Amino acid sequence: MSYFVQLVVDGLATGSIYGALALAIVLVNRSTGMINFSQGALAVLSTFVAYAVVQAGGPLLLGLVVAVAFGVVLGAVLERLVVRRFEGGDPNTAVVATIGLLVLVSGIAGAIWSYDPRAFPSLFPNETLALGGVFVSVRSLGTTAVLVAVMVALQLLFRATKLGLAMRAVADNPGSSALSGLPVSRLLMLGWGIAAGLGAVAGVLVAPQLFISPTMLDFTLVYALAAAILGGLDSPLGAVVAGWFIGVVENLAGAYVDVIGNDLKIAVPFAAMIVVLVLRPQGLFGRRTVVRV
Amino acid sequence: MSLLELQDVTASYGQGSVLHGISLSLAEHGATGILGANGAGKTTTLRAISGTVRTTGRILFDGRDISGLGPDRTARLGIAHVPEGRGTLPQLSVRENLLVGAYQRRDRKQIATDVDYCLDLFPQLQQRIASHAAALSGGEQQMLAVARAFMAKPRLMLLDEASLGLAPSTARHVYEAVRRLRRETGLSMLVVEQNAVLAFSVVEHVTVLETGRVTVEGRTDELMGMDSVRRAYLGG
Amino acid sequence: MAGALVRLRAARWSRPALALVVAVLLVLLPLVSSPYVNYQVTTMAVFAVALLGLNVVMGYAGQVSLGQSAFIGIGAYVAGYGTTHGWPLLLTFLLCCLLPGVVGMLVALAAARLRGLALAMVTIALPIVGTPVAKRLSDVTGGSQGLTVSWLDPPSWVALADDQWRYYVVVAIAAVVFLLTRNLVRGRVGRSFAIVRDNEAVALSMGISPYRTKVLAFTLASTIGGASGFLYLAVVQYTSPETLSFGTSINLVVAMVIGGSGSIAGAVLGAVYYVLVPVLAGQLDASRTALLSGAFLLLVLFVLPGGLVSLPRRVQQLLTRRRRRSATPSDDPGDRTGTPVLTSDGRTP
Predict the structure, then answer these.
(1) Least packed by Cβ within 10 Å: which of A68, B71, C147, C199?
(2) What is the mean pLDDT of chain C?
């Protein structure tokens, strides 16, 4: 029983990382209607900035703050200089453009920091708590808590603030939003900026476990994309819940189903995703798009 | 001084030019209808003013040259463009659409009052206040588009083919509300309309465009007396 | 390569002549060049076939596929299994096409109703799940170590070195695949691909089923991908889970777009790029390969959206525009950034 609870809690922690990156993907999709395949690469580059701060003797918390700020600026600049050109155009070209960013940005990280994995300090102490006979790691609890806080903040931003409303309006129809005086260009940059900042948080949280390298988040990105699609691409809550679902289910399946084991557990989210896509193409939490001509 | 003045404005989409140097002016609190056949440049004239098409020539709004400004800038100066084909945000609720309309305003209390005014103007929207705009009927979407533009507290509203695709009774209903809006707020308007009868119910001046040039202009009662105009736009 | 050069000559009579010259050059090349060059050119032919397959589904039918590497991998493993078990060569080749084709068709039957991004995600699953599966099935695949074969040595009646013989086999098969595919995409099937890509509603109104068309495109792409897997093993004599990895798929998409999507010659140029860039970048600094590759892709997307294959046309376009501009300097349309042109109810075009 205690092993089971441990698996679930660890699954939630891993799922929180998937969820955080999935949130970033949802955010970009909401603000620019694109799927950003470079979301993981942006997060890794930001995490390397935190790494550089720590290497220079700064505290990790400062590194996190600098990494998030760097991510916001990086996302905004890339949106303006590169992505803008492909918004609202052919979706396939847009996918290829973000793949280009993925290759470019992880290439930059590789050229500066090489491809060898390096150790990265953890924000949380490497301890376990005994809660009613069950041992859970502080890292798992902390990671999950951070994600919950971020998600609540984002929900508040979108549902309760004027800025969030404006971002949703621009995502819905940028041309029409401009007619109401919305600064479309800046709002699009902000969407990408917030997403990349969020990715930086995910990167710093997961780096101690994965060891930092330019390809650190390649698999996490795939999980996150699966989570974003499972949850419905327009739902932050859906992205997070789907991230947790994937994290927990793959952990349990890896441990209890012999055929799957540790190496094949990545097939679990895909199986779930394909089933959901075929049965319910708008995702578990997404809204069916209503179009009236 | 006139609120809006176009001086020798041309506009083009890519290669072909659509407006060939048109000039017109609109007085504060005035309303002018723009009539003309398909392709005469009516919609492009409105787009030139709101900055959604590339132009040359001078466009003066309240004495200031606004040519070359983008749509978000002209909107912030007080020009509200209700585009052809219903300018709503389909994935947002009716209320959210109205609040987006009021994006540049800071007077929160007055915004709430104006939302109520819009719902009084278009009672149908009251029942659909929480629905997605995409779920509204065509007529309701057009009403929402007008209401959203009004929420910006503009000084000039550009209304483009508000009757397009609507049942005649719905179109009349929309125009009755627009007329009431003018009467009660004194809002200046440029109205592009295929259906001249509807346009004449709102405006007191008319400009007729043909292939990108102004051919006739004058007060509505003068134009009503001109046989050519009656034949072309009022069905005899 | 032949196609790109052909494009330079507008005159009709020169086409077959030029094709003949290129064919003769391709035949003579391995006899005079070093084994290293032969190996590289043969590898280009392998990836030209792989990119051709990707081009069918992505360029011609307009469906994003991030799973092409999986079919190369399956093809290579089937070839490896066949060789080590002494199957006849022709049977091995046919199975190399058939098995990936069936896998591709099954995936497409489930996924082809999806659009754009959802489809991209399902196709990602192939390399992502395929890699651990390949490691797991170590009896067949050699696991993480990979599979080394000694295969396709020149028969005794041919006086050719290994590299020359393999060059001829691979280039000949590649040429046949290219000819068949070219005829296909220029015919009725190609037209239905284009219609589905441009507008599914129009396709429906013309009695073309978008679903069936997409399944067909995916099946063809995976079949061709499988063929390239066969060729891959013939040249490299080794395959591992790396062949079908996600990274390979990404690089294939990059190379296809750089070469020119929706173009036969583009597949060849993309393959030249795919093979040459790591070699050239490696001479400078291997860790910069990805950086250069990503930057180059974005550059192409910005200034040459049609890919390298459209370079001659683009240059010509720029030249005529300059000439026209110097004739009438007043009417400069300028750049298109800035104000978006409004569409009635949708996004900016």
Answers:
(1) C199
(2) 86
pLDDT beyond 50 at C263: yes
Among residues C236, C218, C189, C219, the alpha carbon closest in space to that of C47 is found at C236
Q: End-to-end alpha-carbon separation of chain A, Å?
A: 55
Structure tokens at C264: 């036969």
Q: For the segment A5-17, what is each residue's pLDDT rounded down to a tens digit?
A: 888 988 999 999 9
Q: Are the CB atoms for B199 and B163 separated by under 8 Å?
A: no
Q: How many beta-carbon pairs below 8 A join chains B and C?
A: 28
Q: Is C341 near chain B, with CB under 8 Å? A: yes
| Contact present, B160 and B82 (Cβ < 8 Å) | yes
The two structure tokens encoding residue A198: 């969020």
What sign does the CA torsion over C267, C272, C274, C277 have? negative
H-run or E-run covering B158: strand B156-160
Closest among B35, B11, B27, B22 to B191, alpha carbons compared? B35
Which position has the higher pLDDT, C279 or C189? C189
**CA distances for C277 relative to A243, A264, C43, C255, C296, angstroms:** 37, 33, 13, 10, 10
- Checking DSSP bridges between strand B16-26 and strand B4-13, what pairing results, if any? antiparallel
Is residue B149 within 8 angstroms of chain A, CB to CB? yes
Question: Which one of A107, A110, A277 has the shortest CB-CB distance to C118?
Answer: A277
Out of B89, B136, B138, the one facing A173 most closely (by C-beta) is B89
On whether any CB of chain B is under 8 Å from the CB of C344, the answer is: yes
Query: pLDDT by residue (tens digit) across B43-99?
Result: 999 999 999 888 889 999 999 999 889 999 999 999 999 998 778 999 899 999 999
- Nearest CA distance, C92 vs chain A (angstrom): 29
Burial class (CB in 10 A: 0-12, 13-18, 19+), B111: middle
ipTM of the complex: 0.89
Query: Which fold is adopted by the domain B4-233?
Result: Rossmann fold (3.40.50)
